[in-house]
Amino acid sequence: MDQSVEASAPDAEKQSQTTATLCDAWDYKGRPAVRASSGGWSSAAMIVCVELNERLTTLGIAVNLVTYLTGTMHLGAAASANTVTNFLGTSFMLCLLGGFLADTFLGRYLTIAIFTALQAAGMAVLTLSTAAPGLRPPACADPTGSSSSCAAPNGTQLGVLYLGLYLTALGTGGLKSSVSGFGSDQFNESDGGERRVMARFFSWFFFLISIGSLLAVTVLVYVQDKIGRRWGYGVCVVAILAGLLLFLAGTTRYRFKKLVGSPVTQIAAVIAAAWRNRSLPLPSDPAMLYEDLDVDAAKQRLPHSKQCRFLDHAAIVEETAAPATNKKSNRRAACTVTEVEEVKQVVRMLPTWATTIMFWTVYAQMTTFSVSQAAAMDRRLSSTFVIPAGSLTVFFVAAILLTVPLYDRLLAPLARRLTAHPHGLSPLHRIFLGLLLAAFAMLAAALTERTRRQSSTPPSVFLLLPQFVLVGAGEAFTYIGQLDFFLRECPRGMKTISTGLFLTTLSLGFFLSSLLVTLVHKLTSSRRPWLADNLDHGRLDYFYWLLAGISALNLAAFVAAARGHVYKDKRLADAGIKLHPDDDVVLHA
């Protein structure tokens, strides 16, 4: 009898593990998710495939679009460059819309599914725009493509082109805002083992994005140039739909989280309350500010800080409030100290947010004027094979793929010994390196362009390698440093809006590039334009010198802001607050 009971014990334990459920995750039917049969790497992989196809599509459009706009659509160099950067900027800016919809109405799963379908529709329109002869202006009468012999596109042709581009941008922004978050939802953060696996998920997430980029600048660009642009865009449509079907196939295995509402509402409420109470005097003792003692377990009570004192007005308890014995009835009259401090944490991230925008302005040149440079240089590898101008960005992507493991295996261990930081370089140190490399990249680009102009024959396209490699290595440091910084420093429950803040630096960087191009073209066109349709008639090197100077000034501003930043975990530790296990999640690059 005892032997029978003893023999059945392992089976009972195994059955218990198989049927164990999670308290904060649900399956597609709204039931508590079973730990053993949901989530994990298999579910996360199906989600990551959507992001891989998104990067394949977005970069596949961006790196080669400028040649299509100038050569086929007969737009000027400045207008073509701005079209590319505006497309990319809109894609990332729409991440805020996607994040808001995901947090407030749709949830991450539906947001990904709906916006992936929109991206596929946009690519289908773009494919039609490049395939139908009536949607392109006729070829130039003069083979050299002089402006007098080229017919400008009409409104319908530009309208269909822009419809395809911006419908694709809408889909890209919506799904990008939720893919990384939904992927991380597949791991239980309260479990030590799954929490460590989730940290690895972010590294593989970034790595697979880069694989998508590599496919875009090699296979996809080659198909566009050698077989036909409509075939290249058609491949994207098929890839997006295949990724969507794979994503939907994993529905029964996903772990879902309940909607928590948009943090934008809380930020707006704190700012509105602070403005409404701006005439009320702040109490001499911060303990007199309103705080709810029964803080939700999903939140973390934060101590009062002395920065941004204006926001403290939102937590003032007015004299007409309910008695202290009934504080809960006063909940609508003022915000809590914790809510105010969460908004302060977002404010503390803004200097870093503002000073990282310039990196993405430099990055934008790799998909616009650097591609134009490549088109004007000798791209022959042999008598029969010519490198497509857009494929030079393969060295940019290769630099990313090489920098990540080199940092992990060589630089990080060295940095751990020198700085005592547990993961090598801190997020701000990584961002500093990325901004520094971006400034050097613009110096290299200016020198290369001067060499190209002074050469009697078109020089080798490989002279462009330094600027591509420097920006690529810079992205590896900046992108992961920003992602690490914005996720670690944001308040608990505000990861979506913090990710949105990070992605808006990309958007604003591209828009800043468009603004600079427009201003420079307008200010120099009356004399010798810097950004001429024919690079030999302009001074692109002057534009690169300008970007190098702005990058140097921005780097100095970043250093000043970084010196004054105190990391969230240090502030909480100094206040004697024990960190939640979530705060131990670190993005290893």
TrEMBL record:
Annotated GO CC locations: membrane
Topology of the protein relative to the lipid bilayer: Multi-pass membrane protein
Subcellular location field: Membrane
A biological-process GO annotation: oligopeptide transport
Chief location: membrane
InterPro entries: MFS_trans_sf, POT_fam, PTR2_symporter_CS
Transmembrane segments: 83-102, 108-128, 201-224, 230-249, 385-407, 427-448, 460-480, 500-521, 542-562
This protein's UniProt keywords: Membrane, Transmembrane, Transmembrane helix
Family label: Belongs to the major facilitator superfamily. Proton-dependent oligopeptide transporter (POT/PTR) (TC 2.A.17) family.
Protein's name according to its UniProt entry: Major facilitator superfamily (MFS) profile domain-containing protein
